Amino acid sequence: MVALSTNGRREEKAVANIYDDKRIFPDFRSGPLEEYRERASFCYKRMNVVLEGEDHIRLKHKVWQWMEQHPDYQREPGSDLERTREMANKRQHLLWEQQFYGVNEYLGTPHLLLAFGQAIFSYDFSTSVKFGLSTGMFPSTLVSNGSGRLGKYVAKIADNRILGAYALTEISHGTNALGMRTRATYDVKREEFIIHTPDFEAAKCWVGNLGKTCTHAIVYAQLYVPDDKHQGLQAFLVPIRDERTLLPFPGVTVGDMGEKIGLNGIDNGFVMFNQYRIPKANLLSKTGDIDAQGNYTSKIKDERKRLGASLGALSVGRVNITAITYVALSKAVTIATRYAASRRQFGPTNSPAEWPVIEYQSQQYRLIPHLATTIALRVATLWIGKENVDLTMKGFTGEDTSQAGMEIHAISSALKPVATWAARDGIQECREACGGHGYLKSSGLGELRNDNDANCTYEGENNTLIQQASNWLISLRRNNADFVAVSPLETVSFLKDMDTILQSKGQEHTPAQVLDPLNLLNALNWLTIWHWIRR
Ligand SMILES: Cc1cc2nc3c(=O)[nH]c(=O)nc-3n(C[C@H](O)[C@H](O)[C@H](O)COP(=O)(O)OP(=O)(O)OC[C@H]3O[C@@H](n4cnc5c(N)ncnc54)[C@H](O)[C@@H]3O)c2cc1C
């Protein structure tokens, strides 16, 4: 039965038993994969439901079915840069109009956020990053770091009337956030901030949505109050372009970063401000505020800690990136495994028949570990995604979440590099495993590789992020931490038994015992402690 949703979307009634739903689990067409599918020792539908859950699968398919039917969601091979940008922008607006997963859905079923994110990233990274920036990172930073003074902007975002960007990086400084040089000087007489870029090296750059489309940006700048007193890096809501014409305001020089290795639907941009005035109310004041005379107050005295608190959105971003890498790697592994089962090279002597290349041990050795990593990433991303949503929900109710917040920050700082590097290496192996045909643009592997590549760099460059996770572990040891108290998510609570674990010896005698997940976990815990103690 077909019904029209409030958004004019054709919606077919859900089939009660998911296993009978042919739109979700269609009959396979016959072909070279048939033989392998028949040989499977497990039911793939059941596996899918166990791994993802019915509600995740249903939401994903609802989004995909809409995309399949929508004329603006059809692929356009050979599009130039302008057209790619135009379509990513259009598609993200269309997605917003559909409200597949809006504020009400988030409040009612917060854990489906991950499913929605993975559904849209499966289609196209550029559209989804644009959508995530404007409906996720921008408003959530505004709400979590700002105050009620900025409520009118939150309402405009909810109506899709303004589009946001997040501007931290400068030409000369990325990882070293405290080194940023954009200035925000408070003018007592007019109760305004003057945002100024001292030179080109202090221009904000790489900022997604800034090149052509955003109307506002959250800009991080060094705050100076009367007597040129420096109060550290603070975030400000800065109007960039007119909401109707999209022309930049006087005092704002904004431009496009140009064509990139991947993610070309996103208009990454740069901006310089020339003595540009914004109202006092536009300071995001949760971590520090000023009164009309410019007297600064903050509950957090340490400047580094203050910056850490105001960069909280990046921590959430890392959790989301981990979920995206699962999408990229699972697509690549699916393409390469199916190809390996269809592609035939060489065969028995004196026979014209040839073997599918998946029969070669070396091909299995190259692909199957990445398939296993995909499953591990699935489990890990579901877990951290759920913990992160729980944390946000507890934050809404006023519960103290600082300890869990610190743990998620540390774990996501380790998980994001591990996941994005695993996807980077896995996608490349899949490309090579498909031989020359994998190098064709239409294989999709090049786009996956290039789009995932940026995940290794933004929201914390991988090599420096991993140091943050290590620093956390080292500081726990140095401070003789109570490992249970500092680890409400139980990621490091095993360290309380470190002496016993370190003395223990492996008791496994058979391959089955070695592969027992509990024994593997014990071995991993032992190894972690061994590395940790050696420092
Ligand atoms: C596609 C894309 C989109 C982006 N979108 C945005 C956005 O929307 N908003 C935004 O503000 N930024 C954005 N960025 C910028 C991104 O966040 C930065 O590129 C990133 O933080 C790294 O900073 P950097 O480029 O200055 O590298 P650098 O900090 O200069 O690092 C260069 C190298 O030095 C190493 N290094 C640096 N410090 C140390 C250290 N202490 N110890 C050891 N090694 C070190 C790094 O590991 C790296 O290999 C985006 C970037 C890309 C590629």
Automatic annotation (TrEMBL):
Transmembrane segments: none annotated. It comes from the Eukaryota. Keywords: FAD, Fatty acid metabolism, Flavoprotein, Lipid metabolism, Oxidoreductase, Peroxisome. GO terms for biological process: fatty acid beta-oxidation using acyl-CoA oxidase; lipid homeostasis. Its cofactor is FAD. Residues 165-274 form the Acyl-CoA oxidase/dehydrogenase middle domain. Residues 312-473 form the Acyl-CoA oxidase C-alpha1 domain. Signal peptide: none annotated. GO terms for molecular function: FAD binding; fatty acid binding; pristanoyl-CoA oxidase activity. One of its GO terms (cellular component) is peroxisome. It is found in: Peroxisome. Pathway: Lipid metabolism. Its main location: other. The keyword Nucleotide-binding does not apply. The keyword Transmembrane does not apply. Its EC number is 1.3.3.6. Belongs to the acyl-CoA oxidase family. This is acyl-CoA oxidase. It comes from Drosophila simulans.
